[in-house]
Amino acid sequence: MREWFRNVYTTVETVAKGMLVTISYFFRTFDPKRRTFTEKFEYPELPVAVSPRYRGFHRFDLTTCIGCDQCAKACPVDCIYIHKEKNPTGKGFRVNGFMIDYTKCMFCSLCVDPCPVECIFMGSNHDLSCYSRDGCVVDYAKLPLEIAWGQATLNPTAVIESKVITEPVWVKPPEPVEAKKKPAPKKKAAPKPAAEATEG
Ligand code: SF4
Ligand code: SF4
């Protein structure tokens, strides 16, 4: 009988200790002036801020990409597809398509470091709901520049609209003819030092 009462006492004591810890934390963190989470953030208009090092959907700048393929080669799951052609109006390549398949991407960021012109970064967008699997394949060369660069939400409507575009949204303008034909200025010969000139 004594054993039974001891077990009941131990049980009640253990539960009370646990509840004391809980209630002490409740009073330590309770602030009547603090607004509730849902008052502070209202998705999607006012989403929770992410940390600066957060790895979300990419930010890509079509206007500086040189189509060198370094990012695609570095990707461990081969989910970057670049369509390019020789630039008909100048040097380098014209990037016609820059697709990332987000059904495969694992947000490892390995594509960012090798880029020689720093035109691809991990962004802070974390929501891309799609109507189909095809909606997860995003062609950054067909999205409006501000969406591709992460200044506007990567929304499913923009992605679906980009699917019917055949030409990239931006192409490098042709180089000015004068700049191409103008010969490099010749270097002037350095004047002889005065002492050397009198010796001669
Ligand atoms: S984040 Fe990683 S998996 Fe995704 S595209 Fe870049 S290298 Fe590939
Ligand atoms: S590494 Fe940079 S410049 Fe080269 S294709 Fe990728 S995004 Fe474009």
TrEMBL record:
It is an enzyme of class 1 (oxidoreductase). Its EC number is 1.6.5.-. Pfam families: Fer4_7. Residues 191-200 have a biased composition (Low complexity). Keywords: 4Fe-4S, Iron, Iron-sulfur, Metal-binding, Oxidoreductase, Repeat. GO terms for cellular component: membrane. InterPro entries: 4Fe4S_Fe-S-bd (IPR017896), 4Fe4S_Fe_S_CS (IPR017900), NADH_quinone_OxRdtase_chainI (IPR010226). GO terms for molecular function: 4 iron, 4 sulfur cluster binding; metal ion binding; oxidoreductase activity, acting on NAD(P)H. Signal peptide: none annotated. Residues 56-85, 96-125 form the 4Fe-4S ferredoxin-type domain. Residues 175-200 are annotated as: Disordered. The keyword Oxidoreductase applies. PANTHER family: NADH DEHYDROGENASE UBIQUINONE IRON-SULFUR PROTEIN 8, MITOCHONDRIAL. This is NAD(P)H-quinone oxidoreductase subunit I. It comes from Kolteria novifilia.
